[in-house]
Specification:
The chain is mostly helical and 359 residues long. The chain is 72% helix and 4% strand. The two termini are 35 Å apart.
Amino acid sequence: MNLVNYTTRGTVAQPDGLVSYEVREIVVTANIFFGEIVGLLGIVANVINVVVFSKIGFGDSVNLSLAALAVSDIGALVTLQWFNVLLNPWFLQLDLPFLPLEIASLTAGYPHNYFVKVTGFITAFVAFERCLCVTLPFKVKTLITKRFAIGFNVAVFFAIALTMFPVYYTAYYDWKFDAKKNKTVLGIFYTKNINDVLGPSLFLTNSVVPLVSFAVIILCNIVIAFRLKRAAAWRQMSTGASNTAPAAAVSLKEKKMVKMIVTVSVIFIICFIPSSAILTARALMPELSITGVYSNINAMVATYAMEMETVNSSITIVVYYRMSSKYKETILLMFGWQNNKQKKQSESQNLFPKTKPND
């Protein structure tokens, strides 16, 4: 999501609107402070995710995709950390040789948007893969091989990078005179054809691309929930009284799988609702722009949206730990928190099996 349009009173003069400038700065500072703390924890958590999935092994293609998702989340969090620094009202008061708000767009804002879109498509791919597991259980291993998963994840990183080309083609950094500071500082400049090039590009990257990933995630999870519930109902009807325990065990495993997939997907969608809302509102209400009457509201919601994106990229470790027995076993073993008996526990309920590669 493109939330890089943010300013301060010192940059552009505007009326307070419904919210005062002072209230805005308090909320923005709080959002940034919270985002910095959660973001740092999230970076560590995703590094752990990559290590854990590497130890589990990439025989199952879903492990590879979830490791790629962790890499994308690391990129999103690192760039957002830098973005939060540049937006911090205290940082803006420093005597710097550059204009932080102008430096933010190309070095933090758009790179963050890139990783966010990659995260969306990888999440959609994981949901689609699990959808195939319940709809075509005997064909999924031939359709989604390890080689295919590697190719898809690499292609996502590369394809989304291509969509960012117009942004960097129409903008560049150079020295300019800042009247407020009364000195020459590094700032942003735009090419003459920016409106012709960037307009259609931003519509594609900020509207079409996110909506595609959202639609795939929602549709796949609806299909998964429907098919597994129907399968569980069929087994319950066809199982005799003497086999109620095995039936319950299968049902529990199915529920855990559905819960994990739906949880990751729902968290992703919920965390990006604020971003979608502010972008839609800006399009419908010009006064929500950075120079409009409601610019203070814009800044508050935009930083809150970035805060929610930080949560989305940081919380997956909790989901995996609580819902995958193999992930939990591996991370406990990795940190030396598991005894010998626990090390030999069955992996029958493992959602991330370590299987032989299926190339």
